[in-house]
Amino acid sequence: MNLSELILNPNNFFKNLSNKEISLKTPFLIVLIFSALTAIYTYYTTSIMFKIFPADMQNMMAISTIIAAVSAFVGGFIAWLLIAGIMHIISIAFKGEGSFKRTFEFTGYGLLPNLLALCITIPIGYYFLSNVHIQPLTMGQLQNPIIVKHVMSSIIPKTMVYTNLLIGIAVTLWNLGLWTYGIKYARNLELKKAFIVALIPTVLFGAYQLYSVVKFL
Question: Membrane topology for this entry (predicted)?
Answer without folding.
Answer: Multi-pass membrane protein
